Amino acid sequence: MNIHEYQAKALLKSYGAPVADGVAILTKDEVDAAVAKLPGPLYVVKSQIHAGGRGKGKFKELGPDAKGGVRLAKSADEVKAFVDEMLGNTLVTKQTGPAGKQVNRLYIEDGADIDRELYCSLLVDRTVGRVAFVVSTEGGMDIETVAEETPEKIVTVAIDPDTGVTASDVKTLCEALKLEGDAAKDAERLFPILYKAFVEKDMSLLEINPLIVMENGRLRVLDAKCSFDGNALFRHDDVRALRDTTEEDAKEIEASKYDLAYVALDGNIGCMVNGAGLAMATMDIIKLYGAEPANFLDVGGGASKEKVTAAFKIITADPAVKGILVNIFGGIMRCDVIAEGVIAAVKEVGLKVPLVVRLEGTNVELGKKIINESGLNVISADDLDDAAQKIVSAVKEA
Predict the structure, then answer these.
(1) Which residues form a coiled coil (predicted)?
(2) Which is the catalytic residue, given 6, 43, 119, 195?
């Protein structure tokens, strides 16, 4: 689960991290009160969407020459002008795709005099099985670009869970970021704070880009991105309360109600598969034959008829889907249950696109019999390769 920047900053501030004063607003009527709470005369107006690259993004409604989704204002009047332009409009960044995301929240923050911009993140390093800091002197840039062009400028420090962040870890991080004086003293306090927040709140990612050294030599968290392990949210009611469903795909929200593993993609062939590995293989082979999957959908190993029906309805609700591939290898999952679920869903929502079904495993003959006797216009497949070729061909011919 992701949260907004202002929510992430509030969380980090509660742990003692150095964060600027700021106020989130949902309507234009809240601007005056928000500005009055900040010292000024420098303000930053930030679009709050679950996507990176906001500063370099463009608003669809404002034209190519308009400023991006993060703007520096030098007066209260300029703040108001920016809010008028940004709130309610659609921001397009590299991470949103061409459709963009509507900006429903803005964060107005106290400005900062920046000397240097640094990069700092925490994540689970699966190569060593530990939480690790990833830092770089190249803050404010896409870390992927830094990794590709100047990988020597990225330093990774894995933290021993038995000791937490040690003085030696802090020294290594400070040397990597070239922190001295007051900035180094702030870092001695900040790095353990970040690690504690990451572990206690079951985060999967904590990214601060940039972490800045101000002209007065002190550190400040200028931007913050937090992602949380969805499997651990039952332990954190305070984190769950921060969820903004308007930032999530409606189909993914519906899928979560049925405990379906669903991720919307940009293609036009809907996939319903059991098992994450088989789902990945199914998407790969669809791409191999020149098409693109519209989703990742794993119904799991013990899905019921109702769960399968819900999965099929979610797929067909996507207007981008021009064909559907059902690929089931029945171990725990029975092929007849899949067949009954598909039929129930088709009868309820109709079938307007080609449907290819490949069944194999437990009760496969019964499953095929149910499909064949249903009267549905279903294309049968013998194996995965055959299924992929048939659905790609059917979509191209439709």
Answers:
(1) none
(2) 119
Instruction: Write the pLDDT tens digit of every residue in 2-33.
Output: 999 999 999 999 999 999 999 999 999 999 99
For residues 166 and 285, membership in a common domain is answered with no
Catalytically annotated residue among 207, 258, 262, 340: 207
* pTM score, whole prediction: 0.81
Question: 136 in a domain, yes or no?
Answer: yes
**Residue 119 known to be catalytic:** yes
Summarised one tens digit per residue, pLDDT across range 353-371 is: 999 989 888 888 888 888 8
Tens digit of pLDDT for each residue in 73-132?
Answer: 999 999 999 999 999 999 999 888 888 999 999 999 999 999 999 999 999 999 999 999
Which tokens go with 325? Answer: 């591939």
**Same domain for 230 and 173?**
yes
191/284 same-domain check: no
